[in-house]
Design goal:
This protein is mostly helical. It has one domain. The chain is 65% helix and 0% strand. The chain contains 5 helices and no strands.
Length: 103
C-alpha cells in the first residue's frame, strides 16, 4: 500500500525498548512518532551503508545509491564517521600505473 510516490506504509512490531527511543526522539525534537521512526530508520540505514562500505561489501557509488545520497554526500558522511577509502594498496598502484601509461 503506497501513500505517496516515495513512501510506503508498512506494519511492523516494535520492541518496547525501541518504542522508548522513538518516543524520546519525538518528545525531544517536537515531532510525531511516525516522523521520529522515519528519522531513526534513516540513521540506521546510513550506518548500515557506512559499515558495508567500510568492510568492502559496497562500493562508494553503491553505498550512496542504497541510501539515496549523492556520492559527495556519502563521502562527507564517511569522513564524519572517520572512514577513509577502502581501496587496497595494490588497487592504488594499478591505477597509478594505468594513469602513467596514459601520459
Amino acid at each position: 500500500m503506497s501513500s505517496g510516490s516515495d513512501t510506503t506504509i508498512k506494519t511492523v512490531r516494535i520492541p518496547n525498548n525501541l518504542l522508548k527511543v522513538i518516543r524520546h526522539r519525538a518528545k525531544t525534537e517536537g515531532i510525531d512518532e511516525s516522523t521520529a521512526m522515519s528519522q531513526l530508520i534513516t540513521i540506521g540505514a546510513r550506518n548500515y551503508a557506512v559499515d558495508m562500505y567500510k568492510n568492502g561489501k559496497l562500493t562508494l557509488n553503491d553505498a550512496a545509491a542504497l541510501v539515496g545520497m549523492t556520492v559527495r554526500e556519502m563521502i562527507d558522511l564517511l569522513l564524519d564517521r572517520g572512514v577513509t577509502g577502502n581501496v587496497r594498496i595494490d588497487q592504488q598502484q594499478k591505477s597509478i600505473k594505468f594513469a602513467l601509461k596514459q601520459l
